Sequence to fold (498 residues):
Amino acid sequence: MKPIVKNFNNYIKKTIFKVQNKTNNNFNISNFNKYLISFIGILFVYLFYLLLPILYDKSWLQTNIERKLLDEFKINISTSSNISYRILPAPHFLIKDSKLLIVGAEKQKSIAEIKNLKIFLTQGNFFNKNNINFKKLFIDDANFYLLSDDFKLLNELKNKNFSNKKIIINNSNIFFKDSLQKIISIIKVDKAILFFDENDLFNLFNLKGEVFNFPFIFNLKRKNESIKNEEINFSIKPLKLNIVNKSSEKKDNSSEGKNIISILNSTINTKYNIREKSIIFTSNNSKISNSMTNYDGELSLNPFNLDLNIDIENYQISKLFNDNSIFVEFIKSELLFNENISIDTSTVVKSSLKNKIFQKAKINFNIVNGKINLNNTRFINKNIGSLELSNSNLFVENNELLLNTNVLIDIKNSDQLYSFLNTSKVSRKEIKKIFINLDYNFSNKKIEFNKLIIDKKEVSPQLLTLIKSFNINSYSNLNKSRKLLNELLNELFYAYEG
Fold:
């Protein structure tokens, strides 16, 4: 480049001197004009140099671009012949309608359709097209289509170092599909960047996007050394949700890590170890709302099996079964009614709130052969007695969550029960055990009694008709609940004795 500029400058000087000699006047050109003419000349030569890639053969370009993308960026892209060259904002090739390919078990398949692919060039040597180098890659207006099997391939790619040249994705979409090719969720990608940081020696992947109309930020850092370290940060500001996961993968393919989930005023800390297809995890001093929570368990993925034990302090037991709780909504989604899923969980809840019917509960949640039960679940009042569920069945019908179960009420001190309910003395009767078979609707909070036995004496069908359906929806506070139970007991004893 320097010899070209030098020769051009000498040519300008000679031309100027010739003009000066042909005129008998003292024709002088200022230094500023000399520099201006030189600058214009250099700019002209530079622009001509930048336009050299226009002369490259299109078929040669297509073949070599695909090869260099694989070599330099480690991605397999099938390009079209619609290739143009532009010098603004920097020299680059613009390719229309390309496809991103990954190699599967049987053959390579397309996982993305790219409307605009921009390949920016280093300005080293455009005279020799074989030495042309790519600087960075822009993917604009692309649609990515991912199936569950594709995640295995992407995870394998994550275990390799990315290219040290940046790949930038703008204004694109990620479509997640099920096995029937139906779209189950969409992520809008505003901007994503991935590359290998040569200074800190880790893969870096940053993504800003939107899911379910919520903007989010996802960041991943991964070191692929003898011990592979990975850190993931995910946040959705409108939900006040933040997830941090740090893990280390060892040579024997085992790994350990720590996960922190913060949402609203809750924080869940989990330490875990992964061995083959099993995950062992534990949590101490997590907080759900204002309740301290500890848990531990083991998860097997193939087949799916979960054993989980949870302890919750200072929590209102009734909130677990609210119709709009996450627990209820998740069951209503019917994802758990699967014969390939096995779950055995035990949740111990302790409440320090005064004037609540139950101070302690042990809630068992089991899934066996696609059926859900709450067998051996117990609610305890230390002064009055306990309530236990058996032969239960939790199911969804017409988008409503229903429970059919046997209930055994063991009353240790009936006087304490009546005292708690503020029952009048004339209405008090000695009771030891009550057996009930009932149906409970979580949506409208209705209870239907199918069978009722008090101290081994079965209540008549006429009485069951009287109390067949009563609604506890309007009895959300303790005083109303007391009134309801007293009315129910009066009705029971009146009909029972009659």
